[in-house]
Design a protein that fits this description.
By secondary structure, the chain is α/β, with parallel strands linked by helices. 56% of the residues lie in helices and 11% in strands. Helix 12 links the parallel strand 9 and strand 10. Helix 10 crosses helix 11, helix 15 packs parallel to helix 17 and helix 16 crosses helix 19.
Length: 546
């Protein structure tokens, strides 16, 4: 049995790790806890610890300093970093210290147990062999999934800078000129259906299943790293890296793996996917061009010809598809819906769908945009009809739907038509129920909430989900009424309150920072200076001299 140590100054996180970890299944028999780096070092001296989990930002001895001490005094100790801070110094020290994994808060069960499994695999290997070479190779082969994902995302959005990321290049094979790279994108066509039917509605379980199938579909001759794109729903990105191989070999092998994975996902879970495969690249940053081409190919797919089954295609360079104007037709449906003419709205929607069906082509990009716009205008129409009360009593699935997360599953044009009609019917029922008992929406409710809860972490998504309004529409209404954006108003209230609190000489600046909802005194001081052109201390001094 192994021993583990959790070092974190937040008791709730330590408790969450205890609950989420599969300790018994991993063979970890004893778990120790420390609330700071100093007490963590004391426990390391008292007990024979095999694995330590370290928070990077703690009072006193922080994670960076602690890792340096561990690296020097406990070179065989395995470490997992847990942090809510995406700071370069933290990640650089994590790599230098050869940590097993780097997990971002909030920690979820899947990522935590994957990281723990990696550590146990290393510990098991060490017990089987005393060879330093074997131990070193196992450790160096451990990846930092979240960091790799961030690097690839920065490459795809063209914000990656090689010089600034020099220390991280080995993680993605970008340090070796003989490597070749290839990118593929999978779209999950019936994601919501499979998530509910096979994974209890848990998106993380489905994401793990998809990336795991991709990893297991490889043949050992090239590396595959895949992740669910956090910026685009339904999208899975797979990056293939081949060392000292021909571009033709990379294209053939990656294509084989993608087709095999798509087939496995369909057989195992009933998941239908469409996959675009980019061309081989000599430079890792060229994956951005591949991604743009694959995205354009997806957007140009003809929904009228989509078949309800998995398919893949190699994409060299996709031309942009013509955009089909839909706003006019959707606005007509919205007006009929608002005036209570549901039957008329349904007839208009049916005619609209028949018009599209009669076209030669209707692109996937246009279909996605149509669904998104239809969702927005129906929610806004509901708000104008008086819908906003009773959300707390709605079932979770209904609240998610009302917030714009109605299932967008469609793998054929007929399924697309069904989604459009279900959306109209859903909002019609919701407007009727809410209109009967609810009161008209008043933008002043948001102002009142901010005035009372300015010290909390206020996000606009809180209001979009509560009032069924789009972010853009809500922000526009607020600014028209009060002359400030929502974020600007939160800042204004906090800064006015800061002045009031600073007039009380008995309060320390750290206490005022906490009372205003700032977790970092330095951040509060910077925000205050940006707002008033002087620091909190300078303001306090000026009031005392007057």
């Amino acid at each position: 049995m192994y021993r583990a140590l959790i070092i974190d100054d937040e008791e709730p996180l330590r408790e969450a790790i205890r609950i989420l970890g599969d300790w018994k299944g991993l063979g970890i028999g004893e778990i120790y806890e420390a609330e700071n780096g100093k007490s963590g070092l004391d426990l390391l001296k008292q007990h024979d610890i095999d694995l330590v989990m370290v928070d990077m930002k703690m009072p006193g001895l922080n994670g960076v300093d602690l890792l340096q001490i561990i690296e020097k005094d406990y070179p065989e100790l395995l470490t997992i970093v847990i942090s809510g801070y995406n700071d370069f110094e933290f990640t650089r020290q994590a790599i230098r210290s050869k940590v097993i994994d780097y997990l971002l808060k909030p920690v979820n069960r899947t990522d935590l147990n994957q990281a723990l499994r990696k550590a146990i695999d290393v510990l098991d290997a060490k017990r089987k062999s005393e060879s330093d070479i074997i131990t070193q190779n196992i450790t160096l082969n451990m990846s930092l999934p979240k960091l790799k994902e961030k690097m690839y995302l920065s490459i795809l959005d063209r914000s990656f800078r090689r010089q600034a990321n020099e220390a991280f290049l080995p993680l993605i094979g970008a340090d070796y000129p003989g490597n070749r790279f290839l990118l593929s994108v999978l779209r999950m066509m019936n994601m919501d259906e499979v998530r509910r039917a096979r994974f209890g509605g848990d998106p993380e379980l489905l994401d793990f299943a998809v990336t795991n199938v991709l990893a297991e579909s490889g043949d050992g001759r090239l590396q595959c790293f895949s992740f669910v794109n956090p910026r685009r729903e339904r999208e899975v990105i797979a990056v293939f890296t081949l060392t000292d191989g021909r571009a033709e070999d990379l294209a053939f092998q990656a294509g084989h793996i993608i087709r095999k994975a798509a087939s496995s996902l369909h057989q195992l879970f009933g998941l239908k996917t469409a996959a675009g495969i980019g061309g081989p690249q000599q430079e890792v940053t060229a994956l951005a061009s591949s991604y743009a081409s694959v995205k354009a190919w997806f957007a140009s797919l003809d929904v009228l010809k989509l078949k309800d089954e998995p398919f893949t295609q190699t994409v060299d360079q996709a031309a942009a598809a013509d955009t089909y104007p839909v706003t006019g037709q959707l606005t007509m449906i919205q007006k009929a819906f608002e005036t209570g003419g549901l039957t008329h709205a349904k007839n208009l929607l049916r005619d609209f769908m028949n018009t599209i069906r009669a076209r030669e082509t209707f692109s996937l990009g246009d279909a996605d945009r149509t669904l998104q716009e239809f969702d927005i205008i129906l929610r806004e129409a509901c708000a104008r009809k008086g819908m906003n009360a009773g959300a707390a009593a709605m079932p979770e699935e209904a609240r998610r739907s009302a917030a714009g997360i109605i299932s967008m599953d469609f793998a054929s044009f007929e399924q697309f038509v069904q989604v459009m009609h279900r959306m109209l019917e859903f909002y019609s029922r919701l407007a009727e129920e809410e209109g009967a008992s609810g009161r008209p929406f008043d933008i002043a409710e948001i102002k009142t909430y901010i005035d009372r809860h300015y010290f909390e972490d206020i996000k606009i998504s809180m209001f979009t989900e509560k009032y069924f309004l789009s972010r853009e529409y809500l922000m526009k209404l607020f600014k028209q009424q009060f002359g400030h954006g929502i974020h600007e108003y939160v800042q204004k209230v906090r800064m006015n309150k800061a002045k009031e609190l600073l007039n009380d000489s008995g309060l320390k600046i750290q206490e005022i920072s906490d009372m205003l909802g700032y977790k970092d005194k330095n951040y509060f001081s910077k925000a205050f200076r940006n707002y008033y052109q002087l620091s909190p201390s300078e303001y306090r001094a000026s009031t005392q001299t007057n």
